[in-house]
Amino acid sequence: MKLTPKKLHPVARRAAIVLASVLSGWIAFVSAATAAEPTAASLQHVGPAVWIEEYWDVKPERFDDFAQAYRNEVYSITRRIKGYRGYTFLTNLQDEQGFPQTGRDEMISGHYGVHLQGKLLTEQIADVGQLLRRTHNVVIIHHLQD
């Protein structure tokens, strides 16, 4: 029986390359840090010791395809790495009911009191949520622990 490699989805290929390079550095760090004899405290897994965030701009109509390709192509590889504890998808894409509400489209809005260096009152504020919505709409967080 001849085995042929499975062709990766272009999004999954890019994610796998980025994630593989970050994880290889993390594995080298962990293997150097765990050279000492393990203690009872070091064997406990309280929560993720390290997390890696990926920021994606995904077309809303292709989000389900993106998520499926990510699960099949990237997660199927990374879940086998020692210390990998899983991933979390965060998105601000609206669902069928229209949630989450995106609010207004203004980047700068009026505000009652923002001071620059404690002296200059701007009476304006930058909407960080709008800034993030305009740069990416999906965040994937990988949880890692020794």
Counting DSSP H or I runs of 4 or more residues, the number of helices is 3
Question: End-to-end distance, in Å?
Answer: 38 Å
As a percent range, the share of helical residues equals 25-40%
Secondary structure: number of strands: 7
Average pLDDT over all residues: 77
**Biggest sheet details:** 3 strands, antiparallel
Given helix and strand content, the structural type is: alpha+beta
Q: Please report which band the strand proportion falls in: under 5%, 5-15%, 15-25%, 25-35%, 35-45% or over 45%.
A: 15-25%
Rounded to an integer, what's the Rg over CA atoms? 21 Å
With strands numbered from the N-terminus, the spatial order across the biggest sheet is 1-7-2
Can you tell me the residue ranges where pLDDT is under 50 for at least 5 consecutive residues? Answer: none
Shape: extended
What assembly state would you assign to the polypeptide chains in this entry?
single chain
- N-to-C SSE string, H for helix and E for strand: HEHEEEEEHE
